[in-house]
């Protein structure tokens, strides 16, 4: 098989890497890919951005691609699946209609309410004054969410009414463009967050191992929100009993309700959950794609060939496959960021030590990197390729071990080999579960 992975993050590097472990996968293309996918053997980057559907479609035909796997939400929400399917391609990832579950928080909230899925109490507004009055009446803390896609920045957990009002003023003044035309205001939930991702073919659902992300930049979960600074799986917080309930009370009703609306949802359905100290849970959000960095901890534990699962989702044959097989043990991924992230940061720093990190047993998944001059694409040997920083979250290193202690130690030993100017990573990934 030839597979095209759309995207350029750590998630896409992990997907490409996992696909290439299968003997059935002959070659992977990544568009636009990153420094990691450029240097994987049997993997080649293409230069098309994720929203350039025409060129991507052309590449699918010219390269004889058998399966397209879409990483990020933006092309899904723009309808890449509909576009490529109309040309006869097999695409893993929901259609534009299905992607609304992530692309519109108001739409997702209405779906949850209709399906009876536990979620925070919420109201939707299109007028600043009515939204402010509602916040004043509800009191703080309270959560303000721009309806549409805002690159992870559209949610404000306001500690005071004044903060919530300020957030509303900014959103209605156009801070997030059209994504802020509707605003969802919801009750503030407390507890621990968990990510439950499931594969689905629109009928059958197969949950993946639950994961726990670390969203804040600072140790002890302090400071600004980020795209995710580290993750581990399987998250012990989500016990098998809880997982069974999430499947029954969240994932199945979501898919059934999508079907009742004529949406045949094939891809990843990702539920972001808040789990209260009592063990009760509510859905914070749905995503229509693999998580980043969750994927970098989940896929290294997958034993079933990834392409078999993805093809079965596309062909609506997931129910015919045996249960997903997992390696025993645990995985932990530590993300290294550029100095200044999630604010302004520099690009173009030389990264060294990637091979030593791999030699010490870590899986290095690139995110914001690019292959410098001397890359394979320009004809110079693979071993001489300089890799440069090219984004805020630069790379993630995953350790796999018999237990969390081993997995975390391995990830930290490996990431300690890696250097670039201004490298920053949290030293406390997995602090909640060390030694379990
Ligand atoms: P979302 O994109 O909706 O998951 O929101 C991003 C982050 O905001 C979540 O991962 C939570 O940390 C936080 N968040 C969202 N909704 C709530 C809520 N109702 N209560 C508390 N925190 C929330
Ligand atoms: N790790 C959070 C996300 O993928 O949305």
Description:
The longest helix has 21 residues, at 240-260. The protein contains 14 helices and 23 strands. The strands form 6 sheets. A 5-stranded parallel sheet has the order 3-2-1-4-5, with helices on both faces. A 5-stranded antiparallel sheet has the order 12-15-18-23-20. A 4-stranded antiparallel sheet has the order 6-9-7-8, with helices on both faces. With 436 residues, it is α+β, with helices and mostly antiparallel strands. Helix 6 (96-103) crosses helix 7. 31% of the residues lie in helices and 25% in strands. A hairpin with a 5-residue loop joins strand 16 and strand 17 (281-287). The mean pLDDT is 94. Residues 213, 228, 287, 291-292, 294 line the site of glycine (GLY).
How is the topology of this model organized?
Blueprint: E1 2-7, H1 10-20, E2 27-32, H2 35-39, E3 43-45, H3 53-63, E4 67-70, H4 73-78, H5 80-86, E5 91-92, H6 96-103, H7 105-115, E6 122-125, H8 128-138, E7 142-146, E8 155-158, H9 161-172, E9 183-187, E10 192-200, E11 205-207, E12 212-213, E13 216-218, E14 222-225, E15 230-233, H10 240-260, E16 267-275, E17 281-287, H11 294-298, H12 306-314, E18 330-337, E19 350-351, H13 354-359, E20 363-366, E21 369-371, E22 387-389, E23 393-401, H14 404-415
Bound molecules: adenosine monophosphate (AMP) and glycine.
Residues 120, 143, 145, 155, 157, 186, 188-189, 193, 215, 272, 284-285 line the site of adenosine monophosphate.
């Amino acid at each position: 098989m030839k597979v095209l992975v759309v995207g350029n993050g750590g998630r896409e590097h992990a997907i490409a890497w996992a696909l290439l472990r299968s003997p059935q996968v002959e070659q992977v293309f990544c568009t636009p890919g990153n420094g990691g996918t450029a240097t994987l053997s049997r993997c080649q980057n293409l230069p098309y951005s994720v929203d350039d559907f025409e060129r991507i479609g052309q590449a699918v035909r010219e390269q004889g691609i058998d399966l397209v796997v879409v990483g990020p939400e933006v092309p899904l929400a723009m309808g890449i699946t509909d576009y490529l399917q109309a040309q006869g391609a097999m695409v893993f990832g929901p259609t534009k209609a299905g992607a609304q579950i992530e692309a519109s928080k108001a739409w997702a909230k209405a779906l949850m309410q209709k399906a009876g899925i536990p979620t925070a109490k919420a109201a939707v507004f299109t007028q600043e004054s009515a939204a402010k009055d509602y916040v004043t009446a509800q009191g703080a803390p309270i959560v303000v969410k721009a309806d549409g896609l805002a690159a992870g920045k559209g949610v404000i957990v306001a500690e005071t009414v004044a903060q919530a009002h300020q957030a509303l003023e900014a959103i209605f003044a156009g801070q997030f463009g059209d994504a802020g035309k509707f605003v969802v205001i919801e009750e503030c939930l407390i507890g621990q967050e968990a990510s439950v991702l499931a594969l689905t073919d629109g009928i059958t659902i197969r949950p993946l191992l639950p994961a726990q992300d670390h969203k804040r930049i600072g140790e002890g979960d302090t400071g600004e929100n980020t795209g995710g600074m580290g993750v581990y799986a399987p998250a012990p917080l989500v016990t098998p009993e809880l997982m069974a309930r999430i499947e029954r009370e969240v994932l199945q009703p979501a898919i059934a309700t999508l079907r009742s609306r004529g949406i045949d949802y094939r891809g990843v359905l990702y539920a972001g959950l808040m789990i209260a100290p009592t063990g009760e849970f509510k859905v914070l959000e749905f995503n229509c794609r693999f998580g980043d960095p969750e994927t970098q901890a989940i896929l290294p534990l997958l034993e079933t060939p990834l392409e078999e699962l993805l093809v079965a989702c596309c062909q609506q044959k997931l129910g015919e496959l045996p249960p997903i097989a997992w390696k025993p043990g645990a995985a932990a991924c530590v993300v290294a960021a550029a100095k200044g992230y999630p604010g302004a940061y520099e690009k173009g720093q030389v990264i060294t030590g990637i091979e030593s990190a791999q030699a010490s047993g870590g899986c290095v998944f690139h995110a914001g990197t690019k292959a410098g001059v001397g890359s394979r694409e320009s004809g110079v040997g693979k071993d001489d390729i300089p890799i440069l920083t090219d984004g805020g979250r630069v790379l993630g290193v995953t350790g796999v071990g018999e237990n969390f202690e081993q997995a975390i130690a391995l990830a930290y030993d490996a990431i300690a080999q890696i250097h670039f100017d201004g490298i920053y990573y949290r030293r406390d990934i997995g602090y909640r579960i060390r030694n379990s």
